[in-house]
Specification:
With about 325 residues, the chain is of the alpha/beta class. The chain folds into two domains: about 1-175, E3 ubiquitin-protein ligase SopA (Pectate Lyase C-like, 3 Solenoid), CATH 2.160.20; about 185-315, 3-Layer(aba) Sandwich (Rossmann fold). It has helices at about 5-10, 15-25, 140-145, 155-160, 165-175, 190-205, 210-215, 220-230, 240-245, 250-265, 275-280, 285-290, 305-315, and strands spanning about 90-95, 110-115, 115-120, 135, 140, 185, 210, 235-240, 270-275, 295. Helix 8 (about 220-230) packs parallel to helix 10. It comes from Reticulibacter mediterranei. This is TIR domain-containing protein. Pfam families: Pentapeptide, TIR_2.
Length: about 325
């Protein structure tokens, strides 16, 4: 429950509260379960960082410009609240109700979401959605999709538990075609550091991709699930390295992609290399890839600028061809 001392200071308004916080930076205020009355109150520019606001009712309150970094808003009601330009870095938003809240230019970087309710909310002006941490799925309604005009990062939608089929449908509803082919990432587990970086960057650019550690569910039959995914996705991004060249798993995935190319009669494989192993190997399948495909160069992936240039080239190659309108 709320500390009576902290509640009394809070009720004296923003100026008194902020002055007290400035003089007591090590205190983490406790306002949990507080009810502030039926009238909306002005909390704009209030320093509520590291404050326990769990299970509070702040419906329609003005929190514009407020500092909520590291605050605990678990189970709180913020329906219709004004959070314009509020900062919520690392804020706990588990089971928080944000229906009809104004989140324009609010920063949710590293905020923790779980069963968070976004009802009739415009998310297109929200900062840091790509960096939100999803402890479990959240709730987004169709009004939120419409109001946001489809400008919701796909990595956020996927983390919130929105199924791929609905992501496609949502974009079509707002008249925004998918700009990239979907892809399956084939790799050796020993290259996981690079693959996780690439996966995150593809997701943040709205490229929907399948990556086994992220997308395999408990109980999935590994062989069957991978075969299904290769046939479901448009392209196979093949990560070639000294480890991948020796991997029977990678070879198997390349064979499946080649079969898909033969069936569809168009290119499926997009190979990229992390070292020179594929250029020197005598492995038949890898040598065949070397001879038949242009291989993207990510050998300098640890250097930021070189990596970004290679990523831009890969994104260009993943751009879906637009079908002419009838």
């Amino acid at each position: 429950m709320a500390s009576q001392e902290h509640l009394d200071l809070f009720k004296q308004g923003v100026e008194v509260w902020n002055k007290w916080r400035a003089g007591n930076p090590l205190i983490h205020p406790n306002l949990s379960h507080a009810r502030f009355g039926k009238r909306s109150i002005d909390l704009s520019n209030m320093n509520l960082s590291a404050t326990n606001l769990s299970f509070c009712s702040m419906t329609h309150d003005n929190l514009s410009g407020a500092n909520l970094n590291g605050a605990n808003l678990m189970g709180s009601y913020l329906m219709g609240a004004n959070l314009c330009r509020a900062t919520l870095h690392g804020t706990r938003l588990n089971v928080t109700n944000l229906s009809e809240a104004n989140l324009t230019e609010a920063d949710l970087s590293d905020a923790v979401l779980s069963l968070t309710i976004f009802g009739n909310v415009d998310l297109q002006g929200v900062k840091g959605l790509e960096r939100v941490k999803h402890a479990s799925s959240s709730i987004l309604d169709i009004q939120t999709v419409y109001r946001s005009r489809g400008n919701i990062p796909e990595i956020f939608l996927k983390g919130a538990g929105v199924p791929d089929s609905f992501i496609d449908y949502a974009r079509s509803l707002v008249g925004k075609p998918i700009g990239y082919y979907t892809c399956f990432i084939s790799h050796s587990s020993r290259d996981e550091i690079f693959v996780k970086r690439l996966y995150a960057d593809l997701q943040s650019n709205n490229v929907r991709c399948w990556f086994a550690p992220e997308d395999l569910k408990i109980g999935d039959h590994y062989h069957q699930r991978i075969d299904e995914s290769i046939h479901l996705y448009d392209k196979l991004v093949l990560i070639l390295s000294e480890h991948a060249v020796q991997s029977a798993w990678v070879e198997r995935e390349v064979v499946a992609a080649r079969e898909k190319e033969d069936q569809l009669r168009h290119e499926v494989l997009l190979p990229i290399r992390l070292d020179d192993a594929v250029m020197q190997t005598s492995k038949a399948w890898a040598a065949d890839v070397r001879r038949r495909w242009h291989i993207g160069d990510f050998t300098q992936w640890k250097h930021h600028n070189t990596y970004q240039q290679a990523l831009e080239r890969l994104l260009r190659d993943l751009k879906a061809e637009q079908k002419p309108k009838d």
